[in-house]
Amino acid sequence: MRPPRFAGMFYEAAPTMLDKQLEWCFKSKNGPGELPATKKKGDEVLGAIVPHAGYIYSGPCAAWAYKAIAEAGMPDLFIILGPNHHGTGAGTTMETFDLPYGEIRVDQDFVRKLLEKGTIKINDQAHATEHSIEVQLPFLQFVFKKNLEKIKIVPIIVDHDVDLKKLAVDIKETILDTKKKVIIIAASDFTHYGRNYHYVPFSIDIKKNIYKLDGDAIELIKNMDAKGFLEYVDDKMATICGSLAIALLMLSVNSKKVLLEQYYTSGDLSDDYKNSVSYASIIFK
Prior knowledge:
Layout: H1 15-27, E1 47-50, H2 55-72, E2 77-83, E3 91-92, E4 97-99, E5 102-106, H3 108-117, H4 124-128, H5 137-143, E6 152-158, H6 164-178, E7 182-187, E8 192-193, H7 206-222, H8 226-236, H9 243-252, E9 258-265, H10 266-270, E10 276-284
Parallel strand pairs: 1-7, 2-6, 2-7, 5-6
Antiparallel strand pairs: 1-10, 3-6, 4-5, 8-10, 9-10
């Protein structure tokens, strides 16, 4: 059992307070303005890019993606891809996630079949201290609260020690093998600007330049250009922390429409761009 290591830090630990916080994420001015519709009304969602910062900062942005996911209807499985902020490598886990709203179980049959393909391995250590996947789970529980026990996930930490193209093939083949309806979520923040992040590629027109830096990356994502996106990240030395997870998502879905639902920066919230993190909510249909 993996405990909720970031409850009380990235999101509220008490269920009643978490309810209020998540409702605020949806209804706040940077959120979609309303809770998801109770009846299915959206198009099929194949995947999403969602931020993973503290809810007070990125929660309203994340709410856009989870509204679209909720209104598309609950799939059989969520594959959640996150970066490794601690250098402990790539890997998946079969551990149940304990959370303020209750447990979320891993689809162990899917994981076993994925492991048999040989590209990814079990790495409980990578998941033990990583927040990017954990902070997605209360959102899933909130929007699918009537079916909490049916939520199943496959959590995968993506790092430089895994072959993205091979893993994408493995994921697609395992989805076909299991005949599951799957939504893939890539947890990623975008540009981390400022001395706190050791990234100061410009010092004038900071807001404009951050928007341009992120905007060009998002255009490559909208064009489903995984190779070009990774080359752009390398060329700009971009601080998009989940760039590998984003690329794996693009390689794993056959999306015909990619929509930017919301984008803003922590600098927009504080009106201080000396140290700023960008957040984007992007839907793959």
